[in-house]
Amino acid sequence: MAVIDPASAITAKVKSQYGKRLREKDYQAMVKCGSVGEVVQYLKTYTHYQNFLDKVSNDVHRGNLENIMREKQFESFLSFCRYNNGNTPVTKYGLRMIEIRELMKFITLLSIRRPEEYLFSLPLFFVQHTDIALEKLSLVDNHHDLLAAVERTGYYDILKGFPPNDIGDYDLAAIEDALENYSLSVLYQDLGKIKKKKERNQMLDLFDTLSDYHNYSRIIRLKKYYHMNSDAVRDHLLKFGNLTGKRLDRILSKDTYEEVRGELLQTGVGKKAKTIDIDREMAVQGRFEMCRHQLYFSTNPEIVLLSFYVLSQTELSNVIAIIEGVRYSMTPESIYETLVL
Description:
Blueprint: H1 6-18, H2 24-30, H3 36-46, H4 50-53, H5 62-83, H6 89-111, H7 143-149, H8 155-160, H9 172-191, H10 197-224, H11 230-235, H12 245-252, H13 257-264, H14 268-272, H15 282-297, H16 301-327, H17 332-337
Helix pairs in contact: 1-16, 5-16, 6-9, 6-16, 10-13, 10-15, 15-16
């Protein structure tokens, strides 16, 4: 009897699932819908979302619809993780990304004095997969209780260092930066434990490039729109990737946006970015294009799985952007421009 190679099997399964993705014609049709109900009906009738939206009413609340789609996306990711022997660096990284998204969602509500609203977006499907007491967050109304909800996790020490100011406001940008750097630090430790050198280097190179896209985009935005000085910009960057050390010093030593942009264009990701609008959200577009390439051509199952995770997250973000755009009566053209394709 033939033995099935797990790596080949998961790669085939992921690619098969990705083959069901939304296409350009789907996006073009949805941006022209006259209501959120029409968008839902299109998803139920013509796309792979019909598998789990068929019993959902067309007048479903936008927040509930998003939760349903996130749940199914998570189940799909988790099924691949189990098939790939579960507790891998990519699996744990994906789970942390969801945890960070939920923490930032709640802390934002806490900062605007509306923490009880978290109850309406609580992802019940994720509660059993995290050590964060998510179900208790909607009852939290102060920093002390927030820390108690995360005391069994690595997020405790981070959030402890970012208490709200005297009027209860949190530095949301600083917290998110710190959480992302923490997640990457754990990831790189996990990657360092991969025994096969080739696989380890492939994963390190991939995440270095993802970090570079993030930092590249962040430098552009902070210099062009906020005119931040070098030290302030540095505080908002990921501590990983190739845009570090003397290379980063040289980039940030430039005084004007034009000079900084010129230096960035000479970097590895800068040269790749010449086909991408540098002044838009380059991190999202660059990450999308790189992961699409990796999904098609990589033979490393962890890279294929990560690529699928990023691409499916991007598709979901596109659908949410369309729903929001239709809800607020934006023109089809303006909605379409916000999508990552």
